[in-house]
What does this fold into?
Amino acid sequence: MKLTENPEIVHWPETHYVFVEKTGPFPKIAPEAWQIAQSVVPLLAENNQITGGMSLYRMSPNVYRAGFALAAEPVKLPPELRYELFAGGTYSKFVLTGPYSDLPAATGRVWEWISKNDITVRPDFAIERYANDPRTTPEDKLLTEILIPTA
It folds into this structure.
């Protein structure tokens, strides 16, 4: 697994975000949320400019949002999706290069690094930003930014 060893501190901007939200164990709810979100992409794209895919998640309780960043506030949002103007903020960014199947292990290592280095975590959503398109990018070249909300 190719994961950056030390994070870069970044500021995530305010983002128009549409998503499917599920609660429960991540291995079960994440695929379910993405299946629904992906199924409505054609409808969403008819009236909105999608600028990227990202998930937001929070632990304790487990909340997972599968969705898309938009260029502007959504127009004619499919009923399966919710909208939020995500505030953004300061994050510690790690980058995983490789298949999405490595995400659970990579995320575990990131949280372990955060804990071992006594990094103060804000009570906000963590982000997984999918930096390239899995339909056109070889699996070993996929880039996923894992962003942890830090103070």
Observations:
- The chain is about 25% helix and 40% strand.
- The mean pLDDT is 96.
- The CA atoms of residues 23 and 61 lie 8 Å apart.
